[in-house]
Amino acid sequence: MRVAVVGATGFQGGAVARLLAERHHRVRALTRRPEADRPPLPGAFFLAGDLTRPGDVRRLFEGTTHAFVTMPLVYDPERVEAYARNIAEAALLAGTIRLVLNTNTRVPHAPTGFPAFETRRLTERVLRDSGVPLVVIRPPVYLDNLFSPWNGPALVDEGVLAYPLPESARTAWISHRGLAEAALAALTREGLEGRTFDIGGATALTGGELAAAFGRGLGRAVSYRELDPVDFEHGLAGLLGPAAAAGVAGIYHYMASGADPLLMADDDGVSTEALALEPAPVEEWVARQPWQVWATDAEEPDTSPRR
């Protein structure tokens, strides 16, 4: 395949781009970043451009056969709709065989008023209505969020796993690598056009069960602590800016409301069967991470944010 990857400079799109390159598919990516500031993606071809400019998006899709899209952390409906329309137009002109949209979150059935969900619902609608051959994957929450400067030190030094999800919220945690494997399957397996999959781990875990899995992976006792979504949003604003932080934190404000406690849960094996996936247990992912970089006496790691 020759794949246009929207969002390849971020963690999620980057994971997909790397897996595609590993499997010898050609990757094209659009970025506003200067060349010196782009993440290392061997085998990817970068074009300078912006999703707001239709011509740039058309150039991204030229000569490609497939596409994978993760929208940036933008939650203004007008801008998001413009992005989606530019992508749809470019995909149609290129004759895209299949486009896979990663919504970056589950999407509740009913409107919520939270831009984190509603802009992704809008993106789905625009792409679906355009007639592009579409598969949608909706992940729950990423394990990689926990390998971070606001989680790592407390885990390593204190055995505390703090996150802004209610302890009782059953969540089918997935890694960026797991997302990439789901995306590759969604791009290549036959008979999936028009379908939407709530991807994630094979088993949904409460906060306490997640902490126990971390404990097994780390070889020590770990306890779970609920973070207040307001405090989480304030902390995130320092990394992403207030607008993006408010958008991301909306997911956790909604979960804290209790309106849909099973939104992030597993889908009874539907996606793993249709996409032929075998998600690894959480403790295996935990055991593979270099947690000691977060120890208080470790050299400070690079934590520059990417979407």
From TrEMBL:
It comes from the Bacteria. Keywords: NADP. The keyword NADP applies. The keyword Iron-sulfur does not apply. Residues 2-234 form the NmrA-like domain. InterPro entries: NAD(P)-bd_dom_sf, NmrA-like, NmrA-like_oxidored. Signal peptide: none annotated. Belongs to the NmrA-type oxidoreductase family. This is NmrA-like domain-containing protein.
